[in-house]
């Protein structure tokens, strides 16, 4: 058995997919074999475990958690400590998928040294196997690679640049802008990024960039021509409250399911239908009888 394989345990038996551990080099191999890579965000033990057991290749602890879990308006407020907390939970759940942690806004923008120091925390303290950085940060990608930390780049619509972009807008909308983005993607790969997320770009741009890149691209709102796809977990299962973006496909309506389960629970508490006798613990028969006898004696004394 190779070091990257897990012995079959209770958790692993639940997997439909192969248990060979997904690594950064394995993702490059998938590009060579033209086998699409599945990626999904997760922020806690339960959802990460479900994603892993479903055979997802890359689990991203995305800073989108600021919005979909913590209710912030954008991703900017989330801190390194908060991201570490969620990365640890995901790490405890995942056996097969590659665990990637998003470096939050402000954790790598001041200096390359600060970026490397924060990335080390994600690997050392939280068990991340790669970190994701937004934008064409070639020097940082190089320094992280030198520090043995695998890098996932993120280009196109980069949510941490929301104020500079003036909103969440599709990027690379002209041939010239596609050429610039392609140059950035190539330079990022040359600097060491082993995977590049392309977000919010026309499908033609993503396909062109993907074809010319030595490392896999993972698209979100970038069309079918990428080497893989990623979605935000809450979008995929219908746990968001605003209308979904054009690129989202909802595979379930968990929001409706959970809302109706909670409403039914509330109703059954209010009309005493929950809990039932079967859902209650009982005294052993002898203790029940002793309790009853004591109650009867008290009632007799009162009468
Ligand atoms: O934070 C996130 O969820 C992401 C994905 C959208 C790629 O960066």
Summed up:
With 303 residues, the chain is an alpha/beta fold.
Polypeptide structure, described:
It is a single chain. The radius of gyration is 25 Å and the shape is elongated. The chain has helices spanning 10-13, 24-32, 45-53, 65-68, 80-93, 112-124, 138-146, 162-165, 175-191, 203-211, 233-237, 254-270, 285-302, and strands spanning 37-41, 58-61, 98-102, 130-134, 151-156, 193-199, 217-220, 228-231. It is an alpha/beta fold. Helix 7 (138-146) packs parallel to helix 9 (175-191). The chain has an 8-stranded parallel β-barrel, surrounded by 7 helices. The protein folds into 2 domains: 24-252, Phosphoenolpyruvate-binding domains (TIM Barrel), CATH 3.20.20; 258-302, no CATH class. The chain is built from 13 helices and 8 strands. 3-methyl-2-oxobutanoic acid binds at residues 41, 60, 62-64, 102, 154, 197, 199, 220, 230, 232.
Could you list some keywords that capture this structure?
303 residues, alpha/beta, TIM Barrel, eight-stranded parallel barrel, 13 helices, 13% strand, disordered N terminus
């Amino acid at each position: 058995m190779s070091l990257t394989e897990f012995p079959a345990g209770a958790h692993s038996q639940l997997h439909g997919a192969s248990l060979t551990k997904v690594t950064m080099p394995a993702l490059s191999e998938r590009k060579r074999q033209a086998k699409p890579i599945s990626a999904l965000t997760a922020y806690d033990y339960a959802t990460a475990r479900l994603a892993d057991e479903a055979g997802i290749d890359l689990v991203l602890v995305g800073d989108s958690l600021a919005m979909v879990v913590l209710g912030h308006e954008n991703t900017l407020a989330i801190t390194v400590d908060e991201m570490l907390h969620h990365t640890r939970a995901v790490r405890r759940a995942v056996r097969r998928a590659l665990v990637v942690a998003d470096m939050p806004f402000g954790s790598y923008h001041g200096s390359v040294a600060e970026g490397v120091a924060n990335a080390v925390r994600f690997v050392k303290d939280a068990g991340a196997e790669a970190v994701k950085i937004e934008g064409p940060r070639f020097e940082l990608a190089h320094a992280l690679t030198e520090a043995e930390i695998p890098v996932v780049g993120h280009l196109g619509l980069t949510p941490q640049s929301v104020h500079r972009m003036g909103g969440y807008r599709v990027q690379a909308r002209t041939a010239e802008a596609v050429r610039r983005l392609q140059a950035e993607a190539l330079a990022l790969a040359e600097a060491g990024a082993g995977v590049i997320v392309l977000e919010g770009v026309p499908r033609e741009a993503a396909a062109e960039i993907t074809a010319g890149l030595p490392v896999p691209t993972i698209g979100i709102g970038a069309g079918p021509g990428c080497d893989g796809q990623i979605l935000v977990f809450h979008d995929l299962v219908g746990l968001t409250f605003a209308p979904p973006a054009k690129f989202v496909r909802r595979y379930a309506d968990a929001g409706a399911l959970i809302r109706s389960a909670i409403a039914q629970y509330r109703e059954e508490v209010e009309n005493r239908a929950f809990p039932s006798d079967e859902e209650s613990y009982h005294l052993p028969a002898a203790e029940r009888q002793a309790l009853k006898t004591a109650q009867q004696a008290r009632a007799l004394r009162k009468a």
